[in-house]
Amino acid sequence: MSWLTRVFHRRDLYRDLAEEVREHLEEKTEQFIREGMSREEAEHAARRAFGNAAVIEQHGREAWQWLRLESLIADAKFALRQLRKSPGFAVTAILTLALGIGANTAIFSIVDAVLLRPLPYKNPDRLVVVWQTDAVHRGTGAWFDTYREFDEWQRTSKSFEQLTALSWATGGKPLLLHGKPVDMLAIPTSANFFSMLGIAPQLGRTFEAGDLHNKCTLVLSHHFWQTKLGAARNIFDDKLSIDQSPCVVVGVMPRDFSFYPTQTDGWMLITPESEFVKKPWETMTGVFGRLRPGVSRAAAQAELNAIEKRILPESPYLGALGAAEPDVLDMQSEFTWLAGRNLRIALWTLLAAVALVLLIACVNVANLLLGRSMERAREMAIRAALGSGRRRLVRTMFTESLLLAMLGTGAGIALAEALLQWFVRAHPVEMPPSNTLNLNWRVLLFTAALAVGSSIFFGLFPAFRGSCVSLNTILSSGDRGVGATASAHRISRTLVAAQVALSLMLLAAAGLLIESLWRLAATPVGYRTDNLLTAWVNLTDQYRSLDAKYEFYTRFAEKISALPSVQSVMGGSSYFPKSENLFSIQGKAARPGPQPSVQEQGISANFLRTMQIPLLRGRDFGTSDRSNTQPVAIVNEALAEKYFPHEDPIGRAVKLGRTGDPYHKWITIVGVAANVKTTTVFQEMGYVVAPAVYRPLSQDPPAALAVIVATQDEPLRLAGAVQQQLWDIDPNLVLAGVDTMAHKESAVLSQPRFRSVLFGGFALLALMLAAIGIYGLLAQAVIRQRRSIGIRMALGASRACVMRGVLEEALRAVMVGLVLGMTGAILTVRALTSMLYGVRPESTAVFSLSAGILLLAALFAGWLPAWRAASIDPIQTLRIE
Amino acid sequence: MANSKEMPRDLFPGALEMMILESLRRQPAHGYALVQHIQQRSNNLLQVEEGSLYPALQRLLKAKLVKAEWGVSSTNRRVRTYQITAAGMRHLEREISSFERMFEGIALVLDPGKAIS
User: Fold this and answer.
1) Which residues pair with A342 in a beta bridge?
2) Integer distance in angstroms from the first to the last C-alpha of chain B?
3) Closest Cα to residue A474, out of A401, A384, A548, A581?
4) How far is B31 from chain A (nearest CA, A)?
5) What's the CA dihedral at A341, A347, A352, A354 to 10 degrees?
6) In principle, which of A187, A409, A545, A850 could form an S-S bond with A508, CB 3.0–4.6 Å?
7) What is the ipTM of this complex?
8) Is A57 within 8 Å of B54 when comparing Cβ atoms?
9) How far apart are CA A117 and CA A256, in angstroms?
10) Residue B23: CATH number of its domain
11) What is the count of structural domains for chain B?
């Protein structure tokens, strides 16, 4: 008989067995009758000799079953019935688990995509980034390399299989599609970029050596191709141009391909005609490479360093590069760092926080089950009396937990999927280019592990306790087994204390992060941010001369100013002082040590006034400052204090370069402006005030013009009109990166806000779960002590006294929890240090506030059971007994 | 229930199966007859709970060490008669030889004097 036929014939097998047993008993009975017993006596005697027929038949049947599986199914069916009988309990437990597991799954899938899974390129473990770093102060910053360095490295180094340049140092250019400009962030890169990553295009091909003869060759990102070009398949024949040079699109990348920066619209081949090759020392680029197998990053770095030493003397900017050294870094960690300085630690701490939430949720479910096992003590005792073995009882109850875990996990996965979809759509924080975010098998494996782990944690223990019933006490006392439940109650209390402790840790961490966010947001930055429209205008090659550029700006400013509801128009090389520059002062020998550096910003004459940056001394820029008049500058207070202590900087000449640098002119300082606070790429939580030099736009207009339009109302509403005016001046130009200053400001806070919101949410969830835990504990205590409370009240205890008694019980557990939580928090909050601003990790204010909130929640949760205890009618209770 | 705790149902796992197979080797029998036979042969030293025979028989059936057939007994009773199979024979021989080795081992431990003599 094969196993399959056996399954179908099982009924026959069982029937045979049952009949056999019946016949056996019959034969035995007859035997006894022959020996002289009455029929009734004989039947009893036969049964006694035979043993428990039902159990024996069961054992006989089990011989044919896949024992574990089948009894598991039976147990599961039973558990399902039990759960359906108490829907309140089931829904609470499942929801609690779903929240815990769902949040864990969602956070883990982000951690997995960003930090755990290698980058989705070929040989990801050998991919590196090469930056320039400060050789003296390592780890303080990273800069682009020059194209010259890249070129030499690529030609002579032996450490790399491939080395490619890719630069986002230059701005975007408008792409002309059938004569209409489209804003496009085209990232210049070398021909081997795609082959280095080992990624094939979805359509067409990637770059080839032959493309170097074209003026402009493009590979498009899937997103740009789809949203801006309508996913047109004939894109290869379209007439496109960038900067008046005809452009050929050769391919479109797949949807899930991305590289830094993630908003890239397309990749443009660096040709021998480009700035990169023509002015290699002036053009900045990132350098990316794939190491040869077996070559360490340190070895590659040493080689690049040696090559660089050889070519540096030919550099016209020797000083600028003097202190810098190539630094070879792991590509994935670099991407994570680029997306957010604290992203790595933030993700790990979030995972830890959400794990704590799950722990608290599990404690709650364990407590619920424990309460249930107390209620079911009698049922268990009866089942034990009927011959259920202890293991069997544990298994029955554990199956119930497992079923809860499965249902909770199912709901949790649905929740995680919803959260992830929201995350991808809403894009609340910048994420590095990485694997696509989804619930893959790794994540699901993690979730399954969570489910099993948590069901063991919350299920096995109460099941074990529940099965430990002393039959006699329970069945004979008629009461609910006071002894057994009292000890279960003690365990409940310990669990609640643990919940309080964990919640306090989460609350304190959330408090610290939220206070940091609040302090960061409340820091005055020193300039106006309201009602300002910001955008870039990337000028084409037609505006090559300085005069042409400035003339464009004046025409633009005139036309836009004429628009209704526009207050004024400003222009600049950027929105804030930016781009580190070398700095020297006429008549002062360079100090030893690192060459002084300052930030620079070109601004229009009305900029300081409109942006409400006070001019402290000297004069503002004016119409008299022209390209042919004396070069002038306004410096900020920080610069004045740092480089001109006890001196008047006005009238002094400075240079944005080395003293002997012939490329830069001496500039006279005409004014001192107040400081503005800016962010830096090297530090997330905090602002910096760097020494800065403002230059009049008229004397140094940039090719990528930052425009700021001050409006009377909602600035974004003006974007369309501004674009129209721009097309009136030049139909080939397009407004890029349209935004508002207020949004830019708040974008700075996006990462801290994201983690504060999540941490706050988790803490709130933990608080809620802890409150439910406390409530459950007290509610059960009140039921258990009904009789004693009734007696006490009959003997004259006041209602207030009873309430106090119940609340005191809650407070004892909460206090123990608070002390434990405080200790835990003090030991762990240091991990948050880099994400804090304006608050110390061991802030007493935050800690006491968290403890206060918890205490309040505990009192709130305890009030209802306490009130119920106080309204016990002593007469009725005693009568029931 | 109580006596099942005082006296183990099986001497050791597989002992009951071995006794059943041994009985069936001598002659085919139905469940009731098997119990009687085992109890008599052991001089009632082995108080086997009668019912415990049946799960053991089911296990042997499943392992195809015995086969069963419904028939009518000499007392005109509908009975299910068990018969040992060839596989059952081989199994029994293996079991007996391993049991004998084990028994010898136990005896040596319990009565070391025997080992020396």
Assistant:
1) none
2) 45
3) A384
4) 7
5) 130
6) A850
7) 0.80
8) yes
9) 15
10) 1.10.10.10
11) 1
Q: Is the pLDDT of residue A556 over 50?
A: yes
**Rounded to an integer, what distance in angstroms lies between the CA atom of residue A396 and that of residue A459?**
11
* The one-letter amino acid at A786: R
Give the rounded percent of residues in chain A with a pLDDT score beyond 70: 91
Q: Which residues contact A674 (CB under 8 A, 6 or more apart)?
A: A526, A613, A614, A615, A616, A636, A637
Contact B55 A59 (CB under 8 A): yes
Query: Which residues of A fall within a CB distance of 8 Å from B77?
Result: 23, 26-27
A81 to chain B nearest CA, in Å? 30
Q: Do B79 and A21 touch (CB under 8 A)?
A: no
Q: A713 CB contacts (<8 Å, ≥6 apart)? A: A531, A565
- Looking at the DSSP bridge assignments, the partners of residue A632 are A668
Q: How far apart are CA A395 and CA A613, in angstroms?
A: 73
What does pLDDT average to over chain A?
85
CB-nearest partner of B58 from A27, A50, A64: A64
Interface of B with A in 42-61 (CB under 8 A): 49-52, 54-55, 57-59, 61
The 10s digit of each residue's pLDDT in A507-535 is: 999 999 999 999 988 888 899 999 999 99
Model pLDDT for residues A15-31, shown as the tens digit of each residue: 888 888 888 888 888 88
What pLDDT shows up at residue B6?
36
Q: For chain A, say whether B38 makes contact (Cβ under 8 Å).
A: no
Element (DSSP H or E) covering residue B59: helix B53-62
3-state SS, residue A287: strand
Listed residue (A412, A387, A384) closest to A397, CA to CA = A384
Instruction: Give yes or no for a contact between A732 and A181, defined as CB atoms under 8 angstroms apart.
Output: yes
Evaluate whether A600 touches A573 at the Cβ level (below 8 Å): yes
B105 in contact with A at a CB cutoff of 8 Å? no
Question: A10 CA to chain B: closest CA distance, Å?
Answer: 11
Confidence of residue A597 (pLDDT cuts 50, 70, 90): confident
- Phi-psi map region of A856: left, alpha, beta (phi>0 left; psi -120 to 50 alpha): alpha
pLDDT digits (tens, 9 = 90+) for A683-701: 778 888 889 999 999 998 9
Residue A833 has pLDDT above 60, yes or no: yes
> CA–CA distance from A696 to each of A2, A570, A662, B5 (Å)?
93, 12, 21, 101
Q: Which helix (H) or strand (E) holds B66?
A: strand B66-72
Q: Tell me the C-alpha distance between A757 and A755, whole Å.
A: 5
Would you call A63 and B52 a contact, using CB atoms and an 8 Å cutoff? no
- Determine the pLDDT at residue A140: 57
Q: Which residues of A touch B78 (CB under 8 A)?
A: 19, 23
Mean pLDDT of B66-86: 86
Taking CB atoms and an 8 Å limit, are A23 and B49 in contact across chains?
A: no
Distance from CA of B105 to the nearest CA of A (A): 31
Contact of A599 with A690, CB cutoff 8 Å: yes
Contact A180, A186 (CB under 8 A): no
If you average pLDDT over residues A531-553, what whole number do you get? 90
Instruction: Please give the Cα distance from A150 to A308 (Å, whole number).
Output: 9
Q: Is A126 exposed, middle or buried (0-12, 13-18, 19+ CB in 10 A)?
A: buried
Calpha distance B115→B117 (Å, rounded): 6
- The alpha helices in A386-481, defined as continuous H runs, are 390-426, 441-455, 461-467, 471-477
CB contacts, 8 Å: B61 with chain A? 63
The verdict on whether omega for the bond into residue A261 sits within 30 degrees of 0, i.e. cis, is: yes
For A13, nearest residue in chain B (alpha carbons): B58
Given an 8 Å threshold on Cβ–Cβ distance, is B51 in contact with A61?
no
- Considering only A185-194, A431-440, A764-773, which range has the smallest mean pLDDT? A431-440
- Give the nearest partner residue to A16 out of B49, B51, B80, using CB atoms: B80
